[in-house]
Design brief:
The chain is α/β, with parallel strands linked by helices and 329 residues long. It is 43% helix and 19% strand. Keywords: NAD, Oxidoreductase, Tricarboxylic acid cycle.
Length: 329
């Protein structure tokens, strides 16, 4: 193996998403079957022992691509020379906690991590925020990293995208690989909007293939938007393997590109496209090429879509105001 290993930092490494994610990174699914990786696991002090247990299991897999594992509770160590950072660890909402409390608690995590990325990461650092509220946590981290290009901070809506693909494939009796150009807009929250107006199924208009407006508005969109809560209800724990899978997909696509004629959904800093206020980290249709993403331009947005996008973006603006007033950005 002659290639230089890529340093991949995972926060919240001892958590349930971490457990579903690390083995896939180490086996080459994040970056490619020919790319060696070094893992940096960041945890809070009480969870370090559990992270060590996971590292022992990683060792026991004898992954040829895995060139080292470092475990730490110090963000400056975890992000030292980091090329890819997956920010998974976050403070979950607990009983009696208001949204403002949640944002403040997460500010205590993502602000120092953003600063540590700013001070220590490699020049080509790419950041994916998974920990909720993902879009606004990404904004907090980005604001604390003024020396890193803003577009390197992204948040995950790929799980919503994948959920929407499967719901649509099931409804139409097709395969997920027949579906192209689906979009998740806005926040990774119940206000998100899964949009099939530009999507195709087997080359035909998805709206025409579905031909059921009631299903679209009353079943499809809410099912995708509330899927996270439905998983919690069914499993007694939030999605983990599917979230890890989406994180792998997000970074893999960002680095290796989207296929010709298709796009994906990523929450990225808005450049003002589609009327989304500049700087908000909002989900858009994007294509990726040569390690860079670009918002798909020129899509017609009908009145229905406009209202849905605006509602989710309004929530993101409120979250931005809340963290601004807390001095987090
Ligand atoms: P979990 O509670 O199992 O694990 C979280 C881990 O983060 C814990 O081990 C905890 O010790 C660690 N942690 C907490 N603070 C930390 C810090 N400051 N630095 C490093 N590590 C820290 O949770 P999980 O199921 O793995 O989920 C993680 C997050 O991902 C949650 O916020 C969850 O809501 C979110 N999530 C997002 C999506 C998405 O689509 N964006 C999907 C599923 C879950
Ligand atoms: C998900 O979409 O599965 C999670 O974001 C749900 C949650 O609240 O953790």
């Amino acid at each position: 193996m002659t290639r230089t290993p890529v340093n991949v930092t995972v926060t919240g490494a001892a958590g349930q998403i971490g457990y579903a994610l690390l083995f896939r990174i180490a086996s080459g699914q994040l970056l490619g079957a020919d790319v060696p990786v070094k893992l940096r696991l960041l945890e809070i002090t009480p969870a370090l022992k559990a992270a060590e247990g996971t590292a022992m299991e990683l060792d026991d897999c004898a992954f040829p691509l895995l060139q080292g594992i470092e475990i730490t509770d110090d963000p400056n160590v975890a992000f030292d020379g980091s090329n890819v950072a997956l920010l998974v660890g976050a403070r979950p909402r607990t009983k009696g906690m208001e949204r403002g409390d949640l944002l403040e608690a997460n500010g205590g995590i993502f602000k120092p991590q953003g600063k540590a990325i700013n001070d220590n990461a490699a020049d080509d650092i790419r950041v994916l925020v998974v920990g909720n509220p993902a879009n606004t946590n990404a904004l907090i981290a980005q604001a604390a990293a003024p020396d890193v290009p803003a577009e390197r901070f992204t948040a995950m809506t790929r799980l919503d995208h994948n959920r929407a693909l499967t719901q649509l494939a099931k409804k139409t009796g097709t395969s997920v690989s027949d579906i192209k150009r689906l979009t998740i807009w806005g926040n990774h929250s119940a206000t998100q909007y899964s949009d099939i107006h530009h999507a195709t199924i087997g080359g035909k208009s998805a709206v025409e293939v579905v031909n059921d407006e009631k299903w679209l508005t009353e079943e499809f969109i809410p099912t995708v938007a509330k899927r996270g809560a439905a998983i919690i209800e069914a499993r007694g724990a939030s999605s983990a393997a599917s979230a890890a899978n989406a994180a792998i997909d997000h970074v893999h696509t960002w680095v290796n590109g989207t296929e010709e004629g298709n796009w994906t959904s990523m929450a990225i800093p808005s450049d003002g496209s589609y009327g989304v206020p500049e700087g908000l980290i909002s989900s858009f249709p994007v294509t990726c090429k040569d390690g860079k993403y670009e918002i798909v331009q020129g899509l017609d947005i009908n009145e229905f879509s406009r209202a849905k996008i605006d509602a989710s973006v309004a929530e993101l603006s409120e979250e931005r105001e809340a963290v601004r007033s807390l001095g987090l950005i």
